[in-house]
Structure formats: structure tokens, C-alpha cells
């Protein structure tokens, strides 16, 4: 469910975002892929395509599902973290969270 102000809030958030996390999303449903596309368009509009996006999911297929549903993935700074949300969210909530720490545990999306 997306509110009427979603696009405005998304555009505002993407102006300053250091990282976009996709936690626990399988990208099997077209709605989740469409949401990813909306974020991508927002990043393009904000000239923030260099902002890291990380798919956090214990299933390697989540990244495959997403990459096969998209075109031109080379312009996206996209990585995969094959991990459960239970393992990742405490790191994010803790004082030790840094984008670099997420990058170290991630890997590049190869399509």
C-alpha cells in the first residue's frame, strides 16, 4: 500500500540517502519489481545513481529474480547480501553500522 505522498517522500529521501536496503524481498511479485523501478527512477531524477542499493535475502534467487526483471542494470550500484534480516537489522540498528560494513558483507550483482 502506497500513500499519495509516496513519490514526494521518496524523492526527498533519495536526495540524501547513503544506502537503499531491500530487506527480505524476493522480487517474485511484479509489485516489488515495480517498486524497485520507482526507486530507480527517483534516483535518476535526483542524479543519485551512484547510491548503493543492497538486496538482503538468504535466498540467492532474489537477486536473480530482480536482475531478470530489469534492463540496463549496469547503471545501478546494486549488491547482494545473502543473509537473513535477523542477522543484518541489528547491525543497522547498532552504533557499529556503516555503509562500508554493509559493502564488505555484500557482493556485486552479476547479470
Concise summary:
The protein is an alpha/beta fold and 111 residues long. The chain is built from five helices and four strands. It has a four-stranded mixed beta sheet.
3D structure, described in words:
Helix 1 packs across helix 2 (30-45). This protein is α/β, with parallel strands linked by helices and 111 residues long. It is globular, with a radius of gyration of 14 Å. The chain has five helices and four strands, in the order αβαβαβααβ. It has helices at 6-14, 30-45, 61-69, 85-93, 99-104, and strands at residues 19-23, 52-56, 78-81, 107-108. The longest helix has 16 residues, at 30-45. It has a four-stranded mixed beta sheet with strand order 1-2-3-4. The mean pLDDT is 83. Strand 1, helix 2 and strand 2 (52-56) form a beta-alpha-beta unit. 44% of the residues lie in helices and 14% in strands.
Q: Provide the gyration radius in Å.
A: 14 Å
- How many beta-strand elements? 4
Low-confidence stretches: none
Distance between the termini: 30 Å
Instruction: Specify the helix fraction band.
Output: 40-55%
Q: How much β-strand is present in the residues?
A: 5-15%
- Identify the overall geometry: globular
What's the number of helices?
Answer: 5
Q: Structural class of the helix and strand makeup?
A: alpha/beta
Side by side, the strands of the main sheet go 1-2-3-4
Largest sheet: 4 strands, mixed
Helix-strand pattern: HEHEHEHHE
Average pLDDT reading: 83
Amino acid at each position: 500500500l502506497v500513500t499519495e505522498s509516496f513519490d514526494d517522500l521518496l524523492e526527498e529521501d533519495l536526495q540524501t540517502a547513503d544506502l537503499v536496503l531491500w530487506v527480505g524481498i524476493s522480487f517474485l511479485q511484479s509489485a516489488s519489481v515495480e517498486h524497485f523501478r520507482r526507486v530507480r527512477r527517483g534516483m535518476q531524477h535526483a542524479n543519485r545513481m551512484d547510491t548503493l542499493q543492497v538486496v538482503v535475502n538468504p535466498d540467492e534467487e532474489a537477486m536473480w529474480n530482480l536482475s531478470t526483471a530489469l534492463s540496463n542494470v549496469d547503471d545501478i550500484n546494486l549488491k547482494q547480501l545473502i543473509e537473513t534480516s535477523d542477522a543484518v537489522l541489528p547491525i543497522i540498528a547498532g552504533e557499529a553500522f556503516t555503509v562500508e560494513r554493509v559493502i564488505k558483507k555484500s557482493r556485486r550483482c552479476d547479470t
